[in-house]
Amino acid sequence: MSEVAAIPNGTVAVPPVAPGQKRLILVDGSGYIFRAFHALPPMTRPDGTHVNAVFGFTQMLSQFLSRHAATHIAVVFDSARLTFRNDFYPDYKAHRPEPPPELIPQFALIREATEALGVCQAEQPGFEADDLIAAYARAFVAEGGEVSIVSSDKDLMQLIGPGVQMLDPIKQKPIREPEVFEKFGVTPDKVVEVQALAGDSTDNVPGVPGIGIKTAAQLINEYGDLETLLANTAKIKQPKRREALEQNAEKARISRRLVQLDADAPLPCPIEKMETRAPHPPTLEKFLRENGFRSLLARLGLGDASAVTRNGYRPPAPAAEMPTAPAEAPPFTGYETVTTLDRLRAWVREAEAAGVIGFDTETDNLNAMKASLVGFSLATAPGRACYVPLRHEGSGDLMGSGTPEQIDPDAAMEELKGLLENPAVLKVLHNAKYDLEVLCRAAHGGIAVAPVDDTMLMSYALRAGKHGHGMDELAGQHLGHSCISYDSCTGTGRNRIPFSKVALDKATAYAAEDADVTLRLWHALRPELRPARALALYEQVERRMVPVLRDMELAGIKIDAAELSRIGADFAEKLVRYEREIHELAGKPFNVGSPKQLGEILFDDQKLPGGKRSKLTGAWGTDAGVLEELAAQGHALPRRVLDWRQIAKLKSTYVDALAQAADAQGRVHTDFAMALTSTGRLSSSDPNLQNIPVRTEEGARIRTAFVAEPGHVLLAADYSQIELRILAHVADVPALKEAFATGQDIHSRTAADIFHLAPDAVDKEARRRAKTINFGIIYGMSAFGLGARLGIGPGEARSIIDAYFDQYPGIRACMEKLKEDARTNGYVQTPFGRKLWIADIASKDPVRRGGAERAAINAPFQGGAAEVIKRAMVRLPLALREAGLGARMLLQVHDELVFEVPEAEVEATSALVKRIMEGVASLTVPLAVEIGHGRSWAEAH
């Protein structure tokens, strides 16, 4: 045969194979399966069997058959997890999780799909699919044929050479020697040498610690191959690199055996049986009907597609397939303004047929809890979008007099609800949490939007810390497009108008572009997740956080207005008293809140030492650091000013702000930013409920104003020393691991270890010093910083740090490795694999570079802690519902979760929360959670 046998209605997109030429296509079945499973929303056939991966696999393979020419084709599958590699290295792929339960039953159906499409399939117990692909490729080339391997798996790049190329199924682009060199820095025949040195954490291939792809490529290009390199380690100038190679030579050799594909693997399916053949239409039709794939029946022109029984099942729309970028991007113009219900219904039908849509809302406030819906936009394909105004109004010469024609908001919401709740249509949003909250409040009974993808969170999962994740910035990076600015529509400053008064042509251009850009970003970012090993992080953690945080923000937390008023009055009285004392210490009255006047009092009038003037303004510096240093020298005035500033900030930032932020029910609703920090942590604003100080009496008192509703209590669940536990796990410190495992006080144990004290001889001062260094180490604290914290000289502080590292050498090695990883790769990783990009790590400015190195040390521990609590947060709401408990999760404050719990359910809720939180991650030290409850947040601690 001269080409892949066309399925019904199929067309071949490439020229047919020339007469006499032989071409074999080998499809990496596992890549197709997992890509389909993760890209499509859950769906079931009439008998309840999950089939999203089956549908995606069938759709992709049928499309491939219609577009690519070959004489032979086969899909190659993995037979089982254990292979011959596990015989000599039992830990190979030991860290890989089991497939999701809903995917396992689909494996057999996918093999049925392959057979129904008339494609040969190959698998062999004891060997991986990659080994069979290597064996078939060599055998087919030996017969004079050409081979195309359909996969983007880097492990297969070692096979590229004369007669063998790869085809990236996502980008639909060939992978040849230049692409391999770009990725590995070597030619394909040297890929295994580089992989042997660099290892692979996903497959648990050890490699040589501290050597990444770039370094490995440099070494192999210099020495030729692994064995020559290992024989010449004495010539390597870098001591750490030389030592790593010498100490891990056997690991490198084992790694090479693990990554080298076995081209001598048996061929379970003879090559002659791989000749292309057309599928048997009755067999294919029967398979599609049994699985409810009505849209595929219609696309392939088989029988009467409408005859598929639905039984309540809504099959996915024909175009709901894996993201592929259009061959030529259409312009960001030509959008429609939808002002009638008939046109909206037409767009909804188009959206349902598309299967994947971009969606965005336009509002009158950045705070979702205060925003009113002004309009919304839809994109059904790149360049195909509309804007639906709902509450626009006339505004002079911008729109002329009178209100423009629009759809009644309630009627529009009723029409939109079916689309947004349709499980067969994937809704793609940017910062979905905001839009979901707006829609919950905009429609009677709310709108439960699902399934959802979030391009902001995709970018964040891929590149936290590398850049911002706003739509405008991502459009410039990934689409080469400069978005219409909000200011250009509404004006700025005093001349700014609300979006509801923007002329409809401008509003449409701006709003529809947002939906269009969102959909295009999905096409660009979604395919990156799996190759970057960020798919599980995105799907299992970040995306699942969206509805969790939406519900938390909608719930809010109750404020005791009377208690808040009492706190405010007490703070006001204290400010007056402090101000009087400050004036007495200064010898005259002045504005305590004026840094300029304070500087003149301290350094001109009282002649205190250490003052520095600003080069820009000439004013004396009076920031907190300056005042703290003066107070430490025993000066009373700067100490009292610090006290005044603290109370003034608490009053304005929290007491006054909370009173203004409370809604009609007396509850405040914070906004959790999901993609702002470089470590994966959430941040809180408007109001910020994560930074209320608790170590001072006044700060702790503010928490007494946060209360539960009548008949309820607040329950606080706090991870105990989570970052130190992750440090003990990552750095593999036996003493710290033992202390955590046996429930010892970690700071007392550290004090005993580094100061060489008997456990019963550790006093409060020794414990305080140990606690300071334990937490300081996580933040890369210097001897100068530690000395300042402990009130000792840098020399003594250096001695304490040296003693710490001497006692726990694994921590020093871990810190050095993190800095080296950041310098080599530009990022470090949490224990769970999230990449945290470190800005300024290559800066020539030593101050900025030093700050970046400290960030590299801290990021994995802070980021690891953030991921642990996020994992708990995505599991807890469902666990509470399944247990029949009425608790609501209200707040997350870094390592702490706050719940509102019915009084009768405190014991049961405490037990469930503790069990879930302590069981979300498997570390070599136990996770510990402390639980408390009370009428107020303060009482819960």
TrEMBL record:
Biological role: In addition to polymerase activity, this DNA polymerase exhibits 3'-5' and 5'-3' exonuclease activity.
Lipid metabolism found in the keyword field: no
Record EC number: 2.7.7.7
Membrane-spanning residues: none
InterPro entries reported for this sequence: 3'-5'_exonuclease_dom (IPR002562), 5-3_exonucl_a-hlix_arch_N (IPR020046), 5-3_exonuclease (IPR002421), 5-3_exonuclease_C_sf (IPR036279), DNA-dir_DNA_pol_A_CS (IPR019760), DNA-dir_DNA_pol_A_palm_dom (IPR001098), DNA/RNA_pol_sf (IPR043502), DNA_polI_H3TH (IPR020045)
Domain 3'-5' exonuclease: 335-530
UniProt lineage: Bacteria, Pseudomonadati, Pseudomonadota, Alphaproteobacteria, Acetobacterales
Alphabetical list of SMART domains matching this protein: 35EXOc, 53EXOc, HhH2, POLAc
Protein's name in the database: DNA polymerase I
Domain DNA-directed DNA polymerase family A palm: 699-905
